[in-house]
Every structure is written in C-alpha cells, then in structure tokens.
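In response to the reviewer comment on reproducibility (Comment 2.3), we provide here a single inverse folding case reported in full, input and output, so that an independent group could reproduce the run without further information from us. The structure tokens appear first.
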C-alpha cells in the first residue's frame, strides 16, 4: 500500500525557473531546482530543514517520473 504523500501538489510536477544556489547553506548539485508549491520556506536558500527525510512526489504508477523533494522547501533532491 502506498502511504507516501504523492498528491502534495498538482500534476504534472512543476519546477521553479531558477536553480538552487544552496540548501540552507548546504551543497546542492548544480542545476537542481525546487518544485513549485506552497512550501514552508519560500526557497531552498532560506530552508532550515536539515533532517534526513524527503518525500516522493509524482505519479505513483510511474516511479521513474517521481521526484524526491525536501518537504520544507520543495527542492529536488532525487
Ligand atoms: Zn529544504
């Protein structure tokens, strides 16, 4: 049974235009972008979530199209 929150934002997954410079001061792979959504923090640079847990979003029936994101700012951490 799928218990992951796969419906936290509308489909398809939308990304912000600008790439993240860092994630609350932590390294981010070049070109990573945050997903669009009403996140706790407005951008990855201001994120204070340093926890290890991400959430998978995207179509549950197409795992290859799912994205692992930070639950506080929506940054793509796949
Ligand atoms: Zn974050």
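Designed residues, in position order:
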């Amino acid at each position: 049974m799928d218990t992951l929150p796969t419906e936290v934002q509308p489909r398809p997954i939308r990304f912000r235009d600008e790439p993240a410079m860092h994630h609350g001061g932590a390294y981010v792979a070049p070109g990573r972008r945050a997903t669009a959504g009403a996140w706790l923090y407005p951008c990855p640079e201001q994120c204070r979530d340093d926890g290890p847990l991400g959430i998978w979003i995207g179509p549950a029936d197409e795992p290859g199209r799912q994205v692992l994101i930070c639950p506080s700012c929506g940054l793509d951490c796949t």
